[in-house]
Amino acid sequence: MRIGELARRTGTTTRALRHYEQAGLIASARAANGYRVYEEGAVVRVSNIRYLLGVGLTLEDVTAFASCLDGHMPARAPSAQGLAIARERLAVLDARIAAQTEARDRLAAALASQSAAQSGARVGSEGQPAFPAGAQAGAGSSTDIGAPLGSR
Q1: Are 24 and 69 a contacting pair, CB within 8 Å?
Q2: Are 107 and 145 in contact (CB under 8 A)?
Q3: What is the pLDDT of residues 99-122, one digit of tens each?
Q4: What single DSSP character describes residue 23?
Q5: Which one, of 26, 86, 22, lies nearest residue 53 by Cα?
Q6: Across the strands, what pairs with 36?
Q7: Which residues contact 119 (CB under 8 A, 6 or more apart)?
Q8: CB within 8 A of 57, min separation 6: which ones?
Q9: What would the pLDDT profile of 65-101 be if each residue is shown by its tens digit?
Q10: Which 8-state DSSP code applies to residue 77?
Q11: Cβ–Cβ < 8 Å for 65, 86
């Protein structure tokens, strides 16, 4: 089948399929006209890739599962390596959530203090209300809400 049909049957995009192929997770042959041609088994393989990405793994994490992407993954018991990868990813997600929660709490506190002292608010260097001590925007890791959009 051609790339468009595989994308349609798996609910993904042709761009994602090319990305999975570049990562070595799926393979295609080339037709005489240069078009990618996939075997029927690619449907299951792509579905499993999407399943793993959907539960929070990264594409790099998924490469560790490359040898077992051809069966029905949700019904299989995970390997020890798979469990280790999943636990590591969960720890990373928990850390990011904690950092985002702290950033949110700092912003909420800053907004609350600004609302309470609206008429007598301190003014920052650019004419903007100053944040209370310890609540600087962007403080913390690069996953904080205050981080510039391109740095996340």
Answers
A1: no
A2: yes
A3: 999 999 999 999 999 888 775 655
A4: T
A5: 86
A6: 30
A7: none
A8: 85, 86, 89
A9: 887 888 877 777 778 888 899 999 999 999 999 999 9
A10: P
A11: no
